[in-house]
Task: structure prediction
Amino acid sequence: MSAFRHGLMGIHDACRNHAYLLQLRYPGTHANSERSARHFSKVCETEVPADGIYASAYKRWHAIWQRAAESGHATLRTFRFEHRLLVNLAQPSLWESSVSLQALYGVPSIPGSALKGLARHFAKSQLGIPAAQIDAIFGNTDSGRKVQFMDAWWVPGSAPGRQKNRPLVREQVTPHHFDFMQSSGKMPATPFDNPVPSPQIATHGQFLFLAQGPKLWSEYALNILQVALEVEGIGARTPEYGCIARDQNATKEKR
Result:
């Protein structure tokens, strides 16, 4: 029994700096209660040690795709977000607010499917690229694709300011017409409605973006994505959130 308790204590200790596991340990109270708010803050205060397991995994991931880029089969770039980023906010969650986290490391990432969707939409609606060329790059239901976007990984230690090892940050919105929104407009909004604070989780810092494919095509696709991220942004509450800084020089990995 003591060995079993010891094992559980280890899991409990591991949760303290693992945002994904902490997010699953819901305190069992109302989402707007004080206890829930404290737990929510713990999730946002998790740190990613510079010499920890995620930093090692990121280094291996970067090295693998660096070699692929040098052989002409991928393109890598690092972009810094100008402010903050809200990804997978609408995903089902006990808090009615979510964030895209790697389950293994508890660190935020941007799904490759979201990057592909943004780049494809921007290429069609804003750049006017012919549909046949878009299908050739990104594929469709009838044909394959020349380029595949991988999940964007958070760069260790890239959070701004003194919180460089904390990729998550707490946000809060205060809808004044909660009943109106929850009922999809069936209940009228009035000046007497009480505001209901709702916590949210955002991320900030730099991310490593990766497009797999022949050099010419992968660079072209990543150029489209870069402009889309600068102009429209990705995630929720754009363009105030989710836009990369335009004045930065994207880190283009050597090939």
The helical segments are 2-15, 19-24, 34-44, 53-70, 112-125, 131-138, 178-182, 215-231. The radius of gyration is 21 Å. Residues 53-70 form the longest helix (18 residues). Confidence is low (pLDDT under 50) at residues 4-11, 250-255.
